[in-house]
Every structure is written in structure tokens, then in C-alpha cells.
Predict the structure.
Amino acid sequence: MKHKLLFLCLIAVFGCKDQPEQIPAYIKLKPFTVSAQGDASWHKITEGWLYVNGEYLGSYTLPATVPILAEGPSTVWLYPGVKANGILATPDIYPLLTSWESSSVNLVAGQTTEIQPTTLYDPAIKFPFGAGRGDFDGGSSIIFENRDNDQTTTYSFTTEGAFAGNCLQMKLDTAHSIIEIATEAIATLPVLGLPEVWLEMHYQCDLPFFLFLLYVNDFGVEASYPVFQFNNAEDMNKIYINLTDSLVKTNGKNYKLFFRAGIPKDNSGKYAQLNGTIRIDNIRLGHL
């Protein structure tokens, strides 16, 4: 028995040789280009979800260089991703844009292969307001209504501060400190969780404002549901808001986007500022 154990130990020590470490190939992922109005400058695609030969290799903030333990002709998929609801900790694949795919990426150990991914809006997307109506740049635009019973605090379309062309602008002062406006109604939206419904837009503001969903509930009564608070943004900022959970929870019909803002007050009840301006541009509401 002792001789047998010694023999097994000798095999373990001398019979197994260290395997040479595999040298990885590298893929350099460049930021997405966008084949749509405004190209990539209208978007904020910060992430890419990478698959090589059917294997998920992770999500990366673009640009990124990724080591790959594969060689030769390979199939690469890259899905465009955004910061959902503007939160850095919640990157998500953006389902309204198509993935990039190539079956002819040649990977060479120790060498870097550069990839320039492209994307566009999925042709199957439905835009409930109609494509382009939220750009406010002529032709038919989304119709808004004043909901605060103060005709002084209303909205206008202007080139002042717009991201491109015209934008929707709301102005407030201490004499007229609250503004509420709502879009035209959308008869139906998906409310079962799939497909996902996303709102994208640019905004600029020097005071906080809020997004609600107005909808008609099962009793035929208009109700509201809070969705998002926009904080101050000195420059035009792009945001992608996932409305899916809000639609599931409300399960209504005749939805409207409802924007509300008020000049904030300090702890003593005094106005913290004398006036404020909110600008919104390039509203796109979409789902597959």
C-alpha cells in the first residue's frame, strides 16, 4: 500500500506539467454611433453589453478595452445601454435601440481589434405621440394644456436655450410661483410590464420640477402618479426614464405626461429664488 501511495504521489508531482497561460486577444469598444436624427449627440449611450460567440462577457462603460480568451473568426454582439432614470448605479440595456453584431471579427492573441458599433431606433418601435412631434421644430408638435388655472404661468416654444431648433419653455416668478401642464392623452399604453415603455428627453432647469402620469382609473376618474423629480441642470441634459413599473402600478388608460414646478421656499417660508425657468426638448415616448 505504501508503494502504491508513493507511486500516486510521484505521478501527482512529476506527471502534471503547468499549462502555458493563454494569451488573450483584446477588443477595443468605441462609443456607439447613432443612425437617427441628431446622431450620437442627441443621445447619452454610456454602456455596452458584450457577448462573444454567445457568451456574455459583461457590461462596460464605453470606450473600453476588454480581454477575450478566444481566437480566430468570432461573432460579437454589443447592446447599447443607458443610465436608467439618470442614476449612475442603474445602467440598463436600452430596448428602443438595436444591437450591433458582426460574425467576422478576427481575434488574434496579444493583439487589439477595434470595434465601432452602430445603432438605430428599432423599426418596430411605436411612438405614441408620433415620431418627431416632441422635437418642437415645426410641423405638428405635441399639444399641451395649462392645468394650474393661472394663465400667466404658461408655456411657450422658443429657440432660447433649446438643445436644437425649438424647445418647450416654462417660466415662473414669485407672483406666479406654480406651473402645471399636461400633454394630450394617449388612449392606450402597455400596462402589463412587457413591452417596456421608455421616455427620453432633454431638459434644463434652475429649479426642481416633477413628472407625473395622469390617467383614467377603473372608476373613470382622472388620477395622478408621481414618476420622477428633475433636479437643477445648468446645461441641457439627456435622460432616459423607464415608465414600465409606473404603468403596471396604475393600470389605467388615456395617459398624459404631467409636468409640475414651483419656486422653492426656505425653512422660514420665504422664496428661495425670485424666478425660475424650465426647458424641455426632444420628447420621445416609445415601446416595441
Observations:
- Helices lie at 2-14, 244-250.
- Residues 133-287 form a domain with the Jelly Rolls fold (CATH 2.60.120.260).
